[in-house]
Structure to design on (780 residues):
């Protein structure tokens, strides 16, 4: 609520409600919430564990509150960034003006596995590459927001945003009567609308939309089924699909039905064993050929990973300026590129203070948080870093803002980030007010990833 | 609807039904073990046989003992047909078909699994058995209630129902198959003090001992029991009842999809045969032979449904 004892303005109304609340009741509600999540099956699977057990993501009952003014500022910045990303993707798979202009080094693209040569010259329906984006944002001060990651591939977490709100509405209806919070529940409808607006031009009638999941053992399966269910779309796996008469079709009880828009939650590499990883069992052989001939919309488009690649991250301010002609509204976190000799030297010297990330990593795996690591861990990481320097970038540990969570001992501050969800279609850019707030549940920790024990909480954007 | 979703719904309800039937078999076996300890071993043996896991049991244990049998049937990880394994498969199928289920049905299924998993986390002691079996029955009643109370009567509902009644018919047929010799007239001379407890066990295994008495009074005869379980059209676990439901649901699917399926024709044929064949005729053929033929036909129909509704991708 603020770095000192003062409560930040947007929290005023919540605070006055909380002051009159019985602590025991809050503890009980906390336990209720957990039971509710388990019953509903809002769980995720953790990779690399023997027992493929499903775990709950810890949920905190104290909402994170943003004022309408703060949100306006944020959403403008995000919108600018998302526009730039789509323009960049079009350019990088067509004339590559930004490389010609020397604003981004050619070798960063040419040697990058996230750059898909199969996408060169392809025009995705509606001109949209990133239909769904989840921009990770951190706050370091009253007016200081940084974009941490752009998540332009297959961002997850939106179902938690929706279920967190649903849970809060059920647990504290009186709160919502008192405090006017902007709605999030429209998201699935807007997602469907947004996807349908990107249907291939020769699609007739109501577009057939389907969600492609790797299956029930995937860590985000709950979200895949949730979104399909709430959009009224089919939930398909690779083995439900095949190419029939030049279209991607799903096997129904009455034969094969062609799909117009596929919201895939499968990584590029697994999408098509004929065009990418031949070992993949999750994709559809030949789907890229149908895509290139305009027979289906794939959301997000293959190859969008080049835009949220960590090696490219440090160039984002240039990218925003190059395509929008404006100064970036949101800051980039200062980043050292370990591929460059002098920057690597700095990083090696300051390893204890920095966060070092793998260029292609995600989910908080394979990173070093200098201040939290032991001497031994730092030494081991140093060896890895020297061995393969261009595989890493480094950033300062930001003085991340904290928000209160409800612990056994009462309210306590914890570090958070924020992932707003952005929908892009020819009809425009739509950002759901708020997003998913992830919390590092351990005192002092900066790691918010659910795979590393992070939790979530409801995020409120107040009405004007 | 996706073929895979239809398959998941079909199997979800098959597994649930199988788990519930298994609990019923255990209940009947346990009763015999308590009241007539001399025949306990035989009875457990036939329970294992009806559940199709006698071989798996003997691969692990040399002797038949109540506590071992109970735990094998309920929760042994080496028994892929244990009640808890069936509940897990039902729950996984429900998860695969999540978008075709109402929130109520999904939550009831998910909670059943969570509840039973924790109730059977430790070996089940004999004194806790009635409570555990009661829990299995209660949980499956919750899923059934949610299904009947909240599901749209669409194709998804039809696939759920088909799974339930195909599995139930199979289960009733199996118990008859294992116990058929008890029902043969030569062994059940009218007026002699034949072992009524055994017949009662059969009736108990399908939760029909009370209803049978309601309808027949104290007049228990082998033929009456067989008639009740095979041909009685109001008894919800009889073969005839199950087939009336199967035929109805396939009829709804054909109507809905505007076509005539081979499985629909097949089910109708089996129904007609049942209507034309009184119990005397069945005994003339031979009860054992009749049941065997029925189990084969029932499996054949399940395979035909799988083909007709594209449960899997066929080669070509």
């Amino acid at each position: 609520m603020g770095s000192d004892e003062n409560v930040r303005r947007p929290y005023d109304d919540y605070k006055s409600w909380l002051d009159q609340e019985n602590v025991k009741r809050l503890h009980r509600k906390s336990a209720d919430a957990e039971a509710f999540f388990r019953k509903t099956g809002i769980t995720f699977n953790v990779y690399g564990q023997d027992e493929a057990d499903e775990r709950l993501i810890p949920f905190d009952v104290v909402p994170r509150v943003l004022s309408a003014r703060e949100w306006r500022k944020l959403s403008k910045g995000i919108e600018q960034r998302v526009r730039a990303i789509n323009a960049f993707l079009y350019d990088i798979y067509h004339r590559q003006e930004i490389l010609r202009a020397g604003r981004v080094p050619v070798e960063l693209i040419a040697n990058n596995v996230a750059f898909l040569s199969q996408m060169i010259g392809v025009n995705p329906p509606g001109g949209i590459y990133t239909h769904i984006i989840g921009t990770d944002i951190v706050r370091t001060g009253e007016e200081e927001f940084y974009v941490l990651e752009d998540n332009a591939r297959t961002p997850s977490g939106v179902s938690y945003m929706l279920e967190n709100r649903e849970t809060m509405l059920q647990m504290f209806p009186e709160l919502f009567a008192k405090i006017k919070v902007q709605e999030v529940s429209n998201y699935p409808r807007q997602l469907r609308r947004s996807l349908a607006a990107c249907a291939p031009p020769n699609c007739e009638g109501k577009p057939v939309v389907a969600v492609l999941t790797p299956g029930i053992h995937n860590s985000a399966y709950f979200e895949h089924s949730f979104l399909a269910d709430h959009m009224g779309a089919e939930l398909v796996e690779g083995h439900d699909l095949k190419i029939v008469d030049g279209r991607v079709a799903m096997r129904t009880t009455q034969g094969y039905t062609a799909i117009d828009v596929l919201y895939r939650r499968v990584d590029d590499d697994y999408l098509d064993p004929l065009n990418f990883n031949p070992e993949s069992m999750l994709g559809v052989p030949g789907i890229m050929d149908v895509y290139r001939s305009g027979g289906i919309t794939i959301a997000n488009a293959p190859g969008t990973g080049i835009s949220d690649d960590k090696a490219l991250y440090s160039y984002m301010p240039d990218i925003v300026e190059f395509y929008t002609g404006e100064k970036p509204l949101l800051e980039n976190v200062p980043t050292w590129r370990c591929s460059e000799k002098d920057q690597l030297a700095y990083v090696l010297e300051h390893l204890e203070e920095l966060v070092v990330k793998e260029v292609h990593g995600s989910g908080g795996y394979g990173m070093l948080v200098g201040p939290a690591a032991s001497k031994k861990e730092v030494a081991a990481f140093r060896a890895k870093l020297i061995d393969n320097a261009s595989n890493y970038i480094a950033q300062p540990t930001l003085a991340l803002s904290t928000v209160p969570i409800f612990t056994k001992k009462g309210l306590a501050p914890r570090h958070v980030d924020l992932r707003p969800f952005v929908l892009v279609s020819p009809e425009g850019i739509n950002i759901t007010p708020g997003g998913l707030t992830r919390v590092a549940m351990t005192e002092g920790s900066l790691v918010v990833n659910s795979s590393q024990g992070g939790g979530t909480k409801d995020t409120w954007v107040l009405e004007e | 609807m996706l073929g895979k979703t239809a398959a998941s719904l079909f199997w979800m309800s098959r597994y649930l039904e199988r788990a519930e039937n298994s609990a019923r078999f255990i209940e009947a076996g346990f009763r015999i073990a308590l009241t007539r300890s001399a025949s306990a071993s035989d009875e457990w043996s036939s329970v294992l046989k009806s559940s199709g896991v006698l071989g798996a049991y003997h691969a692990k244990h040399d002797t038949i003992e109540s506590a071992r049998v109970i735990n094998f049937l309920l929760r042994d990880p080496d028994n892929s047909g244990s009640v808890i394994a069936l509940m897990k498969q039902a729950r996984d199928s429900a998860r695969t078909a999540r978008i075709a289920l109402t929130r109520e049905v999904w939550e009831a299924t998910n909670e059943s699994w969570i509840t039973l998993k924790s109730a059977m986390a430790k070996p089940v002691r004999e004194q806790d058995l009635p409570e555990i079996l009661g829990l299995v029955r209660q949980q499956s009643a919750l899923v059934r209630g949610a299904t009947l109370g909240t599901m749209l009567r669409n194709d998804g509902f039809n696939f759920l129902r088909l799974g339930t009644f195909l599995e139930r018919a199979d289960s009733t047929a199996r118990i008859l198959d294992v116990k058929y010799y008890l029902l043969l007239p030569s062994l059940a001379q009218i007026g002699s003090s034949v072992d009524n407890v055994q017949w009662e066990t059969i009736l108990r295994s399908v939760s029909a001992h009370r209803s049978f008495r309601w309808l027949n009074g104290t007049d228990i005869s082998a033929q009456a029991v067989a008639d009740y379980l095979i041909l009685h059209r109001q008894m919800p676990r009889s073969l005839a009842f199950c087939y009336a439901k199967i035929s109805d649901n396939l009829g709804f699917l054909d109507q809905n999809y505007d076509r005539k399926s081979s499985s629909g024709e097949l089910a109708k044929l089996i129904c007609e045969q049942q209507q034309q064949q009184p119990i005397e005729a069945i005994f003339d053929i031979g009860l054992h032979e009749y049941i065997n033929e029925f189990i084969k036909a029932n499996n054949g129909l399940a395979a035909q449904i799988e083909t007709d509704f594209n449960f899997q991708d066929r080669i070509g």
